[in-house]
Recover the amino acids of this structure.
């Protein structure tokens, strides 16, 4: 207990005092009811404290009945700020609340990249670029890891989609791509001091991540110098193989026992696993606990007061810096004194858009949607009115491949009468009896029914349901219907069974019609659904949706009402959002609930229409040319409404930049080689065929013009780039390269610009056509100029002047002429300069390259690493 003794010595002393049974206990998680993500029970005999773990996507995951936490902007939003200082602010809030609310392990953040735009956890990612992701990761561990709190980074490695994540998904990716693209953010986490990581669900080149020696030992430990411990995500471990690097197994669920509990002790006692392997794993755990002060700063006996007001201000500041102005024609923004009436359109405009599902969930003490934010901010005399324009989102939106749900406005009940059952027989254990807006049900959503980011979820424990509605045909014409989902579902139309969906393993689809229906006629529709296990270990037990495709002449009455309100107002603000979740990818990049049609209708009614996106995924926005202003606010946390309002009124000059590319169509991703996981669900093999060309790199490689480029983001002022120099002009590749240029605010407002540097390397080595290698966020007053310097360090973890030579297993510097491009996005790069590298040669290096071996240990020299 002497804090002056190095952590690895303290761990050694404690390890020597532990029995084999105690060591195995420390490697095996315990399920605790209530607030914990999971826990490891402490060992009172030796004074080892319990590990009380809390999920943390955008703040701590806290169920109802427990102290609230601050709902911060999502990791993707923080990345969109391109502000390293905000990473520190976010981390300090997270770490402080973790301790005050009596947790000592934060399960998060993520360092995964946004390879797939449909990814259910894209809002939890650090964007699509390895350099940006690494820079927005490096400072987080130290910020979060205050005394008594450790961080657990998720999810090494190449975990980029939810579909089949626990069902045998196999990420097929070459070593060079791992080294140059997906590894750097995790390397940055190690450099930043992360002492724990959570291995992913998927297989990597045929071997599950939790038992993958190449990933866990050779890459994370040997190459990156990771000295801490690795734990499995829930149900992610598939073997008893601690020697391959997995030090701790999370507790199992009733549906799937763990491999360590009950087996590891026996395996050591019988000699099939060496106790030295156990000692190494336990030593890493103890070292991490001592390093982060878990022994020296024990958790309080009760929750301590949280400075909610102070943390809410920080949440708002982060969101303000993240908000990205995608378009602003004709000076619609910011709102001026001539704006006397504002129409706010959007069914969910009263709540922020936040990460939803499983580890994402944070219930804040307070939250403000954009409707209330605009009401609070509008000057006296400005009339702010609201129209929904559509039905609210439910926990099932966005995951189905069928048609759109039937809007409640076209049903006699203004929705669907649904009875929920806790049994499989559709008769007993009634859990709920209510009218839902439509027949869209997601049983996975019940795991997080307390999440107010999605208001409508099925009752906890649902195993089956019956639903009935009466469709009132709006116009005469041909109507098609679809029944989509996984589980067992039957559909009756006017008492005639017209569809039977039996698809327990993957999402199925039954199409019906087209049928000619007469205007004004009423038709009875009945649905029966029951869960049939068989998908992803039961975490995703079932979902079903009745969809329709009506004649093109059908107009939603709520859309008409929204357009009428917009027509009567000086400006219209349309709030559009998506529902995204862990465990489920989105089936489409089209906004749910036909919000695209809503935007078009409002824009046709009012030329001063501003669209505000509250999404994680890069929505397609086919109406871009129809509206003058578009603002991306991501999943903005509890203060999203206040932050958006302050940007719209000009109190804040937006400075966010896109952390990913926004395509014009989903076909563009097909051209790059990125397939929709939901539509390719039968294929467990996921080929990373694009290699190094992730995101904007792939768009450029294939000559594709996106809707909005990576790094794009406008301001209420204008910036001018000038006078670039690069020093030295000739180098041997071992010294830093410094780019200097002048940035001037030539507008009449103070603002901040993110100056971005991209590097085009000599051809012939398979590198991207250009890649981000540096950025600086520069605040400037009107008329102010500043000299900006961006440095390329050849020995940085990202090796900007080298490529990974797989055959030689080393980094090799490329000789030749490099071109530096500097500007405001990956496509707007007004400054260019060149420099030359003549790489040193040496024994075993080969012509034209300099070899760099594996990195050295970055976290001290613990005995166990």
């Amino acid at each position: 207990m002497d804090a002056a003794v190095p952590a690895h010595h303290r761990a050694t002393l404690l390890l020597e005092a532990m029995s084999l049974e105690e060591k195995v206990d420390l490697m095996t998680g315990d399920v605790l009811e209530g607030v914990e993500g999971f826990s490891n029970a402490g060992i009172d005999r030796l004074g080892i404290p319990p590990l009380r773990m809390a999920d943390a996507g955008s703040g701590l995951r806290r169920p109802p009945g427990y102290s609230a936490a601050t709902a911060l902007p999502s990791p993707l939003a923080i990345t969109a700020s391109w502000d390293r200082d905000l990473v520190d602010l976010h981390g300090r809030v997270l770490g402080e609340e973790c301790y005050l609310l009596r947790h000592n392990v934060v399960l998060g953040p993520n360092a995964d990249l946004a390879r797939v735009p449909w990814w259910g956890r894209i809002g939890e990612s650090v964007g699509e670029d390895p350099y940006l992701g690494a820079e927005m990761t490096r400072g987080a561990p130290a910020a979060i890891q205050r005394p008594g709190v450790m961080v657990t980074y998720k999810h090494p490695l190449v975990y980029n989609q939810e579909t089949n994540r626990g069902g045998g998904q196999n990420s097929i990716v070459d070593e060079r791509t791992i080294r140059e693209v997906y590894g750097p953010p995790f390397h940055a986490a190690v450099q930043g001091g992360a002492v724990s990581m959570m291995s992913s669900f998927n297989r990597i080149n045929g071997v599950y991540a939790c038992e993958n020696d190449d990933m866990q030992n050779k890459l994370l430990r040997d190459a990156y110098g990771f000295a801490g411990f690795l734990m499995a995500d829930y149900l992610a471990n598939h073997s008893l193989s601690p020697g391959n690097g997995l030090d701790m197994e999370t507790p199992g669920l009733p549906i799937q026992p763990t491999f360590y509990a009950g087996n590891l002790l026996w395996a050591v006692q019988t000699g099939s696993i060496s106790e030295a392997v156990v000692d190494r794993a336990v030593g890493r755990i103890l070292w991490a606990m001592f390093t982060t002060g878990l022994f020296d700063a024990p958790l309080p006996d009760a929750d301590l007061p949280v400075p909610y007001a102070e943390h809410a201000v920080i949440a708002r500041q982060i969101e303000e810096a993240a908000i990205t102005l995608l378009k602003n024609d004709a000076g619609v923004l910011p709102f001026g004194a001539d704006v006397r009436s504002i129409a706010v359109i959007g069914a969910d405009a009263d709540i922020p858009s936040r990460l939803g599902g499983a580890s994402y969930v944070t219930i804040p003490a307070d939250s403000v949607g954009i409707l209330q934010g605009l009401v609070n901010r509008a000057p006296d005399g400005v009339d702010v009115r609201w129209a929904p324009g559509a039905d609210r989102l439910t926990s099932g939106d966005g995951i189905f491949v069928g048609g759109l749900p039937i809007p409640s406005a076209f049903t006699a009940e203004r929705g669907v009468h649904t009875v929920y059952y806790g049994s499989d027989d559709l008769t007993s254990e009634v859990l709920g009896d209510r009218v839902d807006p439509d027949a869209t049900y997601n049983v996975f959503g019940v795991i997080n029914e307390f999440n107010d980011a999605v208001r409508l979820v099925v009752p906890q424990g649902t195993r089956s349901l019956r639903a009935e509605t009466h469709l009132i045909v709006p116009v005469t014409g041909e109507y098609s219907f679809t029944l989509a989902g996984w589980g067992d579902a039957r559909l009756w139309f006017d008492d005639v069974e017209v569809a039977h969906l039996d698809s327990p393993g993957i999402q199925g689809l039954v199409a019906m019609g087209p049928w000619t229906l007469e205007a004004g006629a009423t038709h009875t529709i009945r649905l029966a659904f029951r869960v049939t296990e068989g998908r992803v270990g039961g975490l995703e037990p079932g979902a079903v949706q009745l969809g329709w495709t009506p004649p093109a002449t059908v107009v939603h009455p709520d859309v008409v009402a929204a357009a009428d309100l917009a027509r009567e107002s000086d400006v219209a603000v349309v709030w559009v959002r998506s529902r995204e979740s862990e465990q489920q990818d989105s089936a489409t990049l089209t906004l749910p609930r036909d919000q695209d049609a809503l935007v078009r209708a409002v824009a046709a009614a009012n030329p001063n229409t501003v669209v505000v996106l509250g999404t994680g995924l890069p929505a397609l926005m086919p109406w871009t040319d129809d509206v003058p202003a578009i603002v991306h606010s991501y999943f903005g946390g509890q203060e999203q409404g206040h932050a958006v309002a302050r940007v719209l009124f000009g109190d804040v000059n937006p400075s966010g930049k896109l952390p990913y590319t926004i395509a014009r169509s989903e076909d563009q991703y097909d051209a790059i080689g990125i397939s929709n996981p939901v539509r390719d669900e039968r294929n467990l093999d996921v080929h990373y065929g694009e290699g190094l060309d992730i995101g904007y790199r792939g768009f450029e490689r294939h000559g594709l013009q996106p809707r909005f480029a990576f790094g794009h983001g406008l301001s209420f002022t204008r910036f001018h780039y000038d006078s670039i120099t690069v020093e030295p002009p000739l180098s041997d590749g071992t010294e830093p390269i410094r780019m200097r240029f002048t940035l001037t605010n030539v507008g009449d407002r103070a603002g901040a610009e993110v100056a971005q540097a991209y590097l085009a390397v000599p051809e012939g080595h398979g590198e991207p056509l250009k890649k981000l290698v540096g950025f600086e966020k520069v605040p400037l007053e009107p008329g102010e100029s500043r000299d900006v310097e961006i440095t390329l360090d050849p020995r940085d973890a990202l090796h900007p002047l080298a490529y990974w030579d797989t055959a030689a297993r080393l980094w090799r510097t490329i000789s030749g002429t490099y071109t530096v491009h500097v500007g405001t996005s990956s496509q707007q790069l007004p400054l260019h300069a060149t420099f030359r590298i003549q790489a040193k040669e040496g024994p075993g290096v080969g012509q034209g390259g300099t070899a760099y071996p594996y990195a050295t240990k970055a976290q001290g020299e613990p005995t166990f690493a």
Summary: Residues 447-451, 842-865 have pLDDT under 50 and may be disordered. The first helix runs from residue 7 to 16. The domain at 404-549 is CATH 2.60.120.260 (Jelly Rolls).
